[in-house]
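Sequence only, no structure available. Ideas?
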Amino acid sequence: MKVSIDSRKIKPGEYFIPVQGTHFNGRDFVSEVISKGGHVLDVDLETYAKSYRKKLTCKVIAIVGSAGKTTVKDMIAGVLVQRFTVVKTEENNNNEFGVPLTVLAADADTDFLLVEMGMRKKNDLKYLTQIVQPDCIIFTGVGKTHIEFFKSQYHLALAKTEVFRSQLKWQLGKRVCFFSGSSDYYDLVVSKADSVGYHLVTYTGDDKVSENINLCYQLGSYYDISSACIERGISTSSRSVHRMNHIQKNKILLIDDTYNSNPSGVLYAFQYLARYDGRKIAVLGDMLELGSHSLKEHKAVGQLAVDYGIDMLFLYGSEMEAVSVTDIPVYHFNDKELLVSYLKDEIKMGDTVLLKGSRSLEMEEVVHQLDHVIS
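Reply:
I predicted one. Tokens follow.
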């Protein structure tokens, strides 16, 4: 059953739930849905998804954490699909609308349901977990994303642990949590998981990139997938839009990771970029929603770039003005057109160029312009 809350996407035979948001009321579009041959499902989305979840016989995996959720979701889906039928969150639709719709996308033929769950404030994960009721949790770690909404990182970590809920009577089998061994507040997360009966499996690696690869092998093995299938799944997994997408033209590689940015995400991006040969250029926009931590976290970007062998930094936005290092060339811009102009003159064959920034900066515009320039 195909269910949507967007009347524009409804096709004949599909179902429409008229939800009400801050700036819209789905009931205003009922006539449009009917005219398209769609069916109106006049129910509360949350309540309906909770009831539907109880009927699912597939394994339900929730993916949570401060960073890397979408990347991990895509990699794990690539592994599981080697043997099983998989339904996963589309792109990063991980909020109070996207999560229940993902649950409703699974059916009797689904073996695994992968649900990415986002969090900005306290109680967000509590709300989503009551809908998803996961059999397995992949916890990518506690960072500082959205920390401006919390008193401290400790309070942010506590909010992340709201994903751990007691097992309900209708849930069968052992529950498991795969947790990043490099995460801050490791002991807190382990304690919360253990207190409600989750079996904990820690995954580690030399850096976040290798951590994700090791996670794929550990989770794949847990669900009886062969090493050969796991390797194939990792190498062939699809990437969501603006998530480490590769654009290769004229011997220049652009890595489009512009969906969002935070300290953990920048670290991962540098570790990923460091694996490439040739000259490595990072184009970074401001990291937002860091509150009082913003100055410190932006200052740290410069030394991180040096540590991971980045050859040049092109920085966009007022927060990035805090970055200052003498070991490599650093250029600051507050005008995208000027940024693109400088990049156009600098980039040459053999370069690998990473582009990243917080969503509201729309750094994908720089990707599009560079893609056109190097065509």
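The CA atoms of residues 122 and 369 lie 38 Å apart.
Hope that gets you unstuck.
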